Amino acid sequence: MEQPGVRDPAPEPLRLVQDLVNTVDLEGGSEELRTAEEAADWARGRGLSGRGYDADALADVLTLREALRDVCAAHAGTDVPAATTAALDRLLARAPLRLAVDAEGRATVVPAGGLAGADELAAAVAAAIVRATADGTWPRLKACAAGTCRWVYYDRSPAGRSRWCTMAICGSRAKMRTYRKNGRVSAPEAG
After folding, report:
1. Which residues, listed in sequence order, are joined to residue 152 by a DSSP beta bridge?
2. What does the pLDDT look like over 53-64, one tens digit per residue?
3. Could you tell me which of 23, 78, 113, 122 has the fewest CB atoms within 10 Å of its CB?
4. In whole angstroms, what is the distance from residue 139 CA to residue 124 CA?
């Protein structure tokens, strides 16, 4: 998926989260997940089974997507709304994970078997977040601070303090609004 500006996509395993949240362009209005079949195709394209998608599963996927956007916005300095944490708790409770150990003895958290639809996607997202939390990359997945954009990007800046998906667009707009707001000088009264 093309990123705004010249940003590189998030590293694995966070790319799944980034790709999910960015299935809708809030500013441009394009939506990749309009139907259950589109959601199933999208999931299959990311290595998931794509089974179990119906209208309810699509609604859960869209809820998961927007909840993740709110969490990514929190990485840039906002609070996660209580309704978002409740929705995530509900979705993640149906998405169990298990610990898998490979031949070299490395342990990895993976989705439990037998999941389908939104539950399978939520478990894959949860496993990605667990891995990214362990390696310290999770807080760098952020939602653009521009309210009309909220595109999710990976902050590769040295200090990790980026606020906009791209300075060339959203950052410039915010700076111009601030300049206009603070730069207005009242004309002296004629007297």
Report:
1. 143
2. 999 999 999 999
3. 113
4. 18
Tokens 């958290």, residue located? 109
What residue has token string 């709304």?
Answer: 81
Helix (H) or strand (E) holding 142: strand 141-143
Q: How far apart are CA 164 and CA 50, in angstroms?
A: 32
Q: Which two tokens stand for residue 142?
A: 């952020």
Torsion of CA 36, 39, 44, 48, to 10 degrees: -100
Which residue is it, tokens 């300075």?
A: 167
pLDDT digits (tens, 9 = 90+) for 86-140: 999 999 999 999 999 999 999 999 999 999 999 999 999 999 999 999 999 999 9
CA–CA gap between residue 87 and residue 141 (Å, rounded):
20
Three-class SS state of 136? coil
